[in-house]
Design goal:
This protein is 4% helix and 35% strand. The strands form five sheets. Strands 3-8-14-11-12 form a five-stranded antiparallel beta sheet, with no helix packed on it. A five-stranded antiparallel beta sheet has the order 4-7-16-9-13, with no helix packed on it. It has a two-stranded antiparallel ribbon with strand order 1-2. β1 and β2 form a beta hairpin. It is globular, with a radius of gyration of 17 Å. The N terminus is likely disordered. By secondary structure, the protein is mainly β.
């Protein structure tokens, strides 16, 4: 118990593996405590508690066990419509309060685990970004957020892995005062770089997109 509590205290993010859940009053769907959406987009908590199409390990986007525990998140990186209807700029983001403001010029380590949902037939690169801010960013629509991510996950390689969880590690030098972290795609559709990977069921050309699972996000001392 002591080791688990000590490990949690070292992470500046609350509920980093999405195991703590809450139920909003308007729906029985479980949501992750401490994590919010900065837009009207709807990131998905995949958990066995949800008996609908957002369960785990089986859900609408594929079949995957959590990297640890039982729960993980799913976010839409992009969706391109070549037919009629739909919003081609639709993005999903997750946002968390940093437990203690980052100190200027201090170095922090970020770790996260990513897996491509296996029902999708396209993967992307250089689009899953991490943005640190001193104030909470918000938008009243579901379009992409026009901010420049300080960290880009897999800038040079397509994230095509559907079975295993890929581990990504980064160092971030704080400018000072950052209190919020937001994860998602901060680019418009014109700059999206994708590759066809096949093997999924979402092959309708009117609804092409990339959807990633996220789990076990750590921000804190690199010594940890």
């Amino acid at each position: 118990i002591f080791c688990a509590s000590q490990s949690d205290a070292q992470n500046l993010l609350l509920n980093p593996s999405f195991e703590i859940t809450a139920v909003p009053k308007v729906t029985p769907l479980y949501l992750p405590t401490n994590w919010t959406s900065p837009t009207t987009g709807s990131p998905d908590l995949m958990t066995p508690l949800n008996i609908n199409n957002r369960s785990a390990p089986q859900n609408f986007a594929g079949y995957q066990f959590a990297h640890s525990g039982n729960n993980y998140m799913g976010i839409l990186i992009y969706r391109l419509f070549y037919g009629s209807g739909g919003n081609p700029l639709l993005r999903e983001y997750i946002q968390n309060d940093i437990n203690s403001a980052l100190q200027q010029d201090s170095m922090y380590c970020l770790q996260l685990f990513v897996s491509l949902a296996d029902s999708l037939v396209h993967a992307s690169k250089n689009k899953l970004g991490v943005y640190f801010s001193t104030t909470r960013i918000q938008s009243n629509n579901s379009n992409y957020l026009p901010y420049t991510a300080q960290i880009m996950v897999s800038p040079n390689s397509f994230i095509t892995e559907k079975q295993a969880w890929l581990e990504y590690n980064f160092q971030y030098k704080a400018t000072g005062g950052e209190r919020y972290i937001t994860i998602g795609n901060f680019s418009d559709s014109s700059s999206v770089d994708t590759i066809f990977v096949g093997g999924g069921v979402c092959s309708d050309p009117n609804n092409l997109g990339t959807y990633y699972y996220l789990d076990d996000i750590y921000l804190g001392s690199c010594d940890s």
